[in-house]
Amino acid sequence: MSDSAIEVAGLRKAYGTKVVLDGIDLHVPAGTIFSLLGPNGAGKTTTVNILTTLIQADGGSARVAGQDLIRNAKGVRARIGVTGQFAAVDDLLTGQENLQLMVDLKRADSAVIPGLLERFDLTAAAQKPVATYSGGMRRKLDLAMTLVGDPQIIFLDEPTTGLDPRSRRTMWDIIRDLVAGGVTIFLTTQYLEEADQLADRIAVLDQGRLVAQGTPAELKRQIPGSHVRLRFGDAASASSAADLLGATRDEDGVTLRVPGDGGTAALRDLLNRLDDHGAHAEELSVHTPDLDDVFLALTGRPHHAEEASNR
Ligand SMILES: Nc1ncnc2c1ncn2[C@@H]1O[C@H](COP(=O)(O)OP(=O)(O)OP(=O)(O)O)[C@@H](O)[C@H]1O
């Protein structure tokens, strides 16, 4: 496979007069985690549905796992896995039976089942009906089912919505393990912290357009609020450095906040200026806004994950 797991150009979709995707370009390198964020109704699910061949775009082109989405939808389907909030898991069947169903569907070998149960810590519960499983166990089983057939790309639609913090962390570890094994993850999530923790790159979708793309750090640097904090040994040093840099001092009198993007060029410049004036900070830290700030700045709307998940 080439370096690119997903390559999308000018993707468009409208329902009647409502334009849902207004020319989307995406590039997802193989073996990375890509996260698509956006407020409710932004077009995330529509994007995933198009890329997983569930619905057709009106315009634009896409290659998924090296296959053309339109000309070889079957080839795409053979190479991807989709794990959704509304999982394909059947409550009345046991974990083992659910996996067997997937093996039959994908004409895979049943021999993979014990390994998958083991990997997701579900061996002990394998003979119990899924109705008795916790939320975390169901998500794990859902993901295990997705792995049958060894997909190259996994679409994870809100994989941890509704999970307690511990199960969420377990799921994050599992996702990181998958990527370490070479799989590419396309993640949609309502939790900005999740994208921040997991994603190599994030794209923010708003009203059918991409309003930003980059690493979590790049996105955070784009918006105001980033600053470098410097702590000096005494108030006099802090005061003269404050004059030099035009920075404000914190209440403690020894810490300065210097507005800036925290990028390496700006940091080098800052340190050089301090050096030139014989000023020596005891501690330096870079503070960036979190993704919530980014989301607000880019979409003009605050992001309330809890509210959204209770819809
Ligand atoms: N089959 C459809 N017919 C008409 N409009 C649709 C259809 N499917 C989606 N839409 C509209 O397209 C827009 C984008 O929907 P989509 O589900 O892709 O958003 P989303 O970003 O996934 O939002 P959410 O976080 O709420 O799931 C919404 O305004 C939605 O109402």
Describe the structure.
With 311 residues, the chain is of the alpha/beta class. It has two domains: 4-220, Rossmann fold, CATH 3.40.50.300; 226-287, Alpha-Beta Plaits (2-Layer Sandwich). 37% of the residues lie in helices and 26% in strands. It contains twelve helices and 14 strands. It has a six-stranded mixed sheet, with helices on both faces. Strand 9 and strand 10 form a beta hairpin. Helix 3 packs parallel to helix 5. The protein is elongated and about 75 Å long. The protein starts with a strand and ends with a helix. The model is unreliable at 305-311 (pLDDT under 50). The structure holds adenosine-5'-triphosphate.
Topology:
Elements: E1 4-15, E2 18-29, E3 33-37, H1 44-51, E4 59-64, E5 67-68, H2 73-79, E6 80-83, H3 95-105, H4 112-119, H5 135-147, E7 153-157, H6 165-180, E8 184-188, H7 192-198, E9 201-206, E10 209-214, H8 216-222, E11 227-231, H9 235-245, E12 248-249, E13 255-259, H10 264-276, E14 283-287, H11 291-299, H12 305-309
Parallel strand pairs: 3-8, 3-9, 6-7, 7-8
Antiparallel strand pairs: 1-2, 1-4, 4-5, 9-10, 11-13, 11-14, 12-13
Helix pairs in contact: 3-5
Adenosine-5'-triphosphate is lined by residues 15, 18, 20, 38, 40-46.
Condensed summary:
With 311 residues, the protein is of the alpha/beta class. The chain contains twelve helices and 14 strands. Helices cover 37% and strands 26% of the residues.
